[in-house]
Amino acid sequence: MGFADHVKEIERVGQGNNTGRDAIVVESWRRCLDTYQLDPAKAREAVIVSQTRLREHRQQAEDLVHIARSGLERLYRQVAEQNYVLLLSDRQGVTVEFLGDPSFNNNLRKAGLYLGSEWAEPRAGTCAVGACIATGEALTIHQTDHFDITHTPLSCTAAPIYDTQGALAAVLDISLLSSPILKASQNMARHLVSSTVRRIELANLMANSRHDLVLRFAGAPEFLDVDPEAAISVDGTGRITGMTHGGARLLAASRGLDWRRTELLIAQPVTDFFEAGLDELASLTRASLPQDRRIAVRDGSTLFAHAIEPQQRTVSVPVARASRQPAAMSSLGGNVPAVDELRRKVTKLAPSRLPILIQGETGTGKEYLARIVHTVSGLSGRFVAVNCAAIPEQLIESELFGHAPGAFTGALAKGRKGLVEEAQGGTLFLDEIGDMPYAAQSRLLRVLAEGEVLPVGGSVPRRVDFRVLSASHRSLNDMVAAGTFREDLYYRLNAAVLSLPPLCEREDLPWLIERLLEKHGTEGRPLRLSSAARLLVLNYPWPGNIRELDNAIAFAAALCDDGLVEVADLPDQLSGMPSILRDDSHQADVRAVLTACKGNVSEAARRLGIDRTTLHRRIRRLGIDRRH
């Protein structure tokens, strides 16, 4: 099929005609035309993201890649002789792992079958990874099924990987630069990819459920112990804590539910889905033969089950805490009330698509929190971060909204898409929104109100659909009162507010320190703090917040010997603190001063040369009971 014929067929589909394509292809083409406003006559070269962005995506997917690696390598060995390449893409469509023949690297990179390639539908049009993210189903996009003419030589087969909470986590794809004409030639490829995904999900569930009962299921006893079709995990109270995608479909089918509504599955009693009690389910171990481990499902069907006992039986927990958070949520902080409350808010707000304003001092992790909200939201598009304070005022409108060809001196001859459009189907994060010029605020308000963006110098608006998050270290409310920030935009942006405390007020500081020590340590050389260095780090006020702490640990990691950070390895601003903080007798010193002041914190703080808030914090961290 030639270029003109391909474009005409897409246009006919857009007009509602049936051209014989698979329904999944037709639906994707229509999304490309109607939702993403892509032009089938305009070729779109494959996009490889920058090294910085790739590093960010790979770090976020690190745990899954580690668990999946052996399955990926096994699959690649099975298909490599047929010239397939293997891509593992994250939920944003960015390839975070790649296996292919190095001798074809140039051709593969040009075709986008390479590490860092971006295959989300709004960016690449109809493709296997993008359509898989959009539908949540295993599928093949074969040659002219692709929307973009530059991708029509390819044949790509992909299957979704779900996390233990039922959310799409990644996509596994195997692709050919060229392939046989018939699409049916890829049926075996789809079977291999789906089987690999099933094993990866099972390994992930096992890794995250060491202290829960795991139940594996198969339709026939012969496959129960070697290749189960589904699995779930159950806690000590008998409630479901995790599942593979097959497990989600099994549970949903047993009650006539939609497997996509995971809130109807996670944290529910396992006895709601099976005609058996928890003790009976737990007894289905290898102590009996596979054919004797039969279990009745609530829909009247029968399965064979294999129970794997927890490594350590967990203590019963309240129902409200039985549901596990997505992996990204655990990185928000330690298990302290303030962070638990933040997790609760993110869990509720992230899927809602409400605009969220994140408030906090510089360095408290506002962009990091925004990325977690995007990850938990389930949006398939990109996370696009814009630092409004870093873009020159005269360029911010063209950067955000793009520009038409020749719109101004120095503009690209072919025009340019703005960052707002780059966020199509995903999240636009406006950092330091308080620094956006007033004129740009007006244009942003119009985009949010009308769902359309008009490029600088352009005359035809383009439809856009994205979720907006914003952040500021300044009080936007005060700026509205001063007339420097538009009140109507302010209310558009702060449908919900998340606040990040300064580091000096975080009760989980020890947890943060340990995470940063892990981050800056290396394999075989873990980082640790000496007692004196730990006291300094715990008691320093950290005006630069987490960013300053991160830099300090990185600095110490470079200077220390054998991974042990001493006081001398820390930055000067820490090692220059008063000597009362330098030795391990600090707790005794504070106790002595409090005793001399008869428990009067104000007087004790004055004698120590610090303010009352700092002393209260030290009393808590040192575990001193003021009554004694």
UniProtKB/TrEMBL annotation:
Keywords: Activator, ATP-binding, DNA-binding, Nucleotide-binding, Transcription, Transcription regulation, Two-component regulatory system
Listed GO MF terms: ATP binding; sequence-specific DNA binding
Record protein name field: Sigma-54-dependent Fis family transcriptional regulator
Gene3D superfamilies: 1.10.8.60, 3.30.450.40, Homeodomain-like, P-loop containing nucleotide triphosphate hydrolases
Source organism of this protein record: Rhizobium terricola
Coiled-coil annotated residue ranges, if any: none
Domain called Sigma-54 factor interaction: residue spans: 332-558
InterPro entries (UniProt xref): AAA+_ATPase, AAA_lid_NorR, GAF-like_dom_sf, Homeodomain-like_sf, HTH_Fis, P-loop_NTPase, Sigma_54_int, Sigma_54_int_dom_ATP-bd_1
Keyword Ribonucleoprotein: no
PROSITE patterns the record matches: SIGMA54_INTERACT_1, SIGMA54_INTERACT_2, SIGMA54_INTERACT_3, SIGMA54_INTERACT_4
Record-annotated membrane-spanning stretches: none
SUPFAM superfamilies named in the record: GAF domain-like, Homeodomain-like, P-loop containing nucleoside triphosphate hydrolases
One GO term (biological process): regulation of DNA-templated transcription
